[in-house]
Design a protein that fits this description.
Helix content is about 80%, strand content about 5%. It has about 90 residues and is mainly α. It has 2 domains: about 1-30, no CATH class; about 30-85. It has a two-stranded antiparallel ribbon with strand order 1-2.
């Protein structure tokens, strides 16, 4: 498995992402926790947009798989919104 340092040195896209993050961290004085939370939220937003088309197809053709997709997205939305999940409060 390649280390983050090796990937930084050999992958121009990864290098650019790291350099951009460093610039944002410095400019905004972010903590490591804030960076991790922001990165995770950005990934969640991306996945929600990316899967919207699949969900539309699942709604058009109801099935067990479509029901599972919808249930997963509802859980994800609840997590993002900070709602309670399984009796435990998020946030």
């Amino acid at each position: 498995m390649i280390s983050p340092r090796q990937r930084y040195e050999n992958d121009p896209i990864y290098n650019s992402v790291v350099n951009t993050l460093e610039t944002i961290i410095e400019a905004c004085q972010l903590t490591p926790l804030e960076v991790r939370e922001a990165a995770m939220l950005a990934c969640i937003h991306y996945e929600q947009r990316r899967t919207r088309h699949s969900v539309t197809q699942a709604l058009a053709m109801p099935s067990e798989a479509g029901d599972k997709v919808l249930a997963a997205l509802e859980t994800l939305k609840a997590f993002v919104d900070g709602e309670e999940l399984h009796g435990k409060e998020q946030g």
